[in-house]
């Protein structure tokens, strides 16, 4: 399985990257595949110029194209951003603005953030979770926020392990072989179930009753 980590940290070393690495290690350790999990880290600070150019010319550079391909092909995704002005960083948002809108549909995603104060912890719920819901990703229930005072304190390791376990479960479940192929009759019934009936036709049917 392929686990891709997107870190939007800007400094070196970065608390954002530290949290991302801990989440990745915990997730890899919780999957049934164990050592067979391939972890790839995408550092957005290295892609800042190419992301900006993509907005102006519509084409990703070589490094950005490779990062977008890795995210698209991942079996699971960990995304971590520092908090800027009570939300995700502009670089973080810009990366997910240039990715194909359908690339994350159905993909398990663990969201995380770092900040200087615990007051920013709700950024996970009012900013990150809506963003990835819009992209139709499958977001794990437990999100992980790490304030400066959380490092070395009780609670953070437990949240990391809980979130990692949830992501590993989703990755393993979505990577299992599919069941028997659907019959032609079942496929037709499924298509009929989701056939879109124009609103005017629905009103006409109601009027005829």
UniProtKB/TrEMBL annotation:
<keyword id="KW-0288">FMN</keyword>
<dbReference type="Pfam" id="PF03358">
    <property type="entry name" value="FMN_red"/>
</dbReference>
<feature type="domain" description="NADPH-dependent FMN reductase-like">
    <location>
        <begin position="1"/>
        <end position="151"/>
    </location>
</feature>
<dbReference type="GO" id="GO:0016491">
    <property type="term" value="F:oxidoreductase activity"/>
</dbReference>
<dbReference type="InterPro" id="IPR023932">
    <property type="entry name" value="CE1759_FMN_reduct"/>
</dbReference>
<keyword id="KW-0285">Flavoprotein</keyword>
<dbReference type="InterPro" id="IPR029039">
    <property type="entry name" value="Flavoprotein-like_sf"/>
</dbReference>
<keyword id="KW-0560">Oxidoreductase</keyword>
<dbReference type="InterPro" id="IPR005025">
    <property type="entry name" value="FMN_Rdtase-like_dom"/>
</dbReference>
<protein>
    <submittedName>
        <fullName>FMN reductase</fullName>
    </submittedName>
</protein>
<dbReference type="InterPro" id="IPR051814">
    <property type="entry name" value="NAD(P)H-dep_FMN_reductase"/>
</dbReference>
């Amino acid at each position: 399985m392929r686990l891709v980590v997107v870190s939007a940290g800007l400094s070196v070393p970065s608390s954002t990257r530290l949290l991302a690495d801990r989440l990745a290690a915990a997730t890899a350790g919780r999957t049934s595949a164990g050592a067979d999990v391939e972890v790839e880290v995408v550092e957005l600070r290295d892609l800042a110029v190419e992301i900006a150019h993509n907005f102006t010319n519509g084409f990703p550079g070589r490094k950005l194209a490779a990062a977008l391909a890795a995210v698209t092909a991942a079996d699971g995704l960990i995304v971590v951003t520092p908090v800027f002005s009570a939300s995700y960083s502009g670089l973080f948002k810009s990366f997910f603005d240039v990715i194909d809108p359908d690339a994350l549909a159905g993909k398990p995603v663990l969201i995380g953030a770092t900040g200087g104060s615990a007051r920013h912890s709700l950024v996970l719920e009012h900013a990150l979770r809506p963003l990835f819901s819009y992209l139709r990703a499958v977001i794990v229930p437990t999100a992980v926020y790490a304030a400066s005072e959380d490092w070395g304190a009780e609670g953070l390791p437990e949240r990391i392990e809980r979130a990692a376990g949830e992501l590993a479960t989703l990755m393993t479940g979505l990577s299992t072989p599919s069941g028997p192929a659907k019959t032609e009759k079942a496929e037709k019934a499924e298509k009929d179930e989701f056939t879109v009936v124009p609103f005017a036709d629905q009103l006409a049917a109601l009027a005829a009753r």
